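The data are quoted verbatim here:
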Amino acid sequence: MFLKAVINIKLNIFFYSRTDRVNFLRENLGIKDINKDIARVLTPTVIGLDGFRLKNSFKKSPGYWLELVFSKDPKGRSLYNQITRKVEHNKKDGFVFYPTTDLTTRQLQEGWIDKYNFCIKNQHEDKWKLFFRELKEHMKYERIDNVYVGLNLLLRYNPFFLKKYKRHYMFEKLAYYYEQQGNITKAIRCLRLQSVLSPNSVEPYLNMSSFYIVNNMEESAIEVCKTGLEKNPRDQYLVSNLVIALS
């Protein structure tokens, strides 16, 4: 007869900010002085808890994750039940929104708004950085429609975040993906959004004109070149594209 091994109960909880994770540990488990991410399992003096780990992702989903390891005895199960009752359903492992399949724009918007609480006027910088990191993960796997919807959410709720550190260049990357797919309309839309975030730059207009020229849309290319040259009349690349479009 083989005895079935008793496995520790684990719970992974998602937080969109480092502060919220620290507060949860302090308020629910009495654990204090956690100032940085810890990869190893720590053994706290909490009855029913064997340890916990701070993680930057869970199953490829970025976040300020907290892994709790409960003891195998009744006290561990009791603490597990107590904690799970306090954690929102959509913050528990297996239920955190992380779209890897095709969803509608509305489904993506509702999922992310619920996940990151964008409607709450709390300006944790961590939240925006984390969402941007998630979008970069989706870009890595070429889930470009997800990225497009996500960037537009950022544009709606925190456009200044996209203006900083040239984060708006992700719109340019998206534009190249869409142009390669033959979706010139979506590509141009991405570049126009980039131009809104970088009003003094002619780069979006240069790329728009190039896309129009490649797709035999010379009239549109001429119009875009003229708009760009109003911002910088001496830009030689825009002048070159204008000459090509006129010839």
In short: Strands lie at 9-13, 49-58, 61-70.
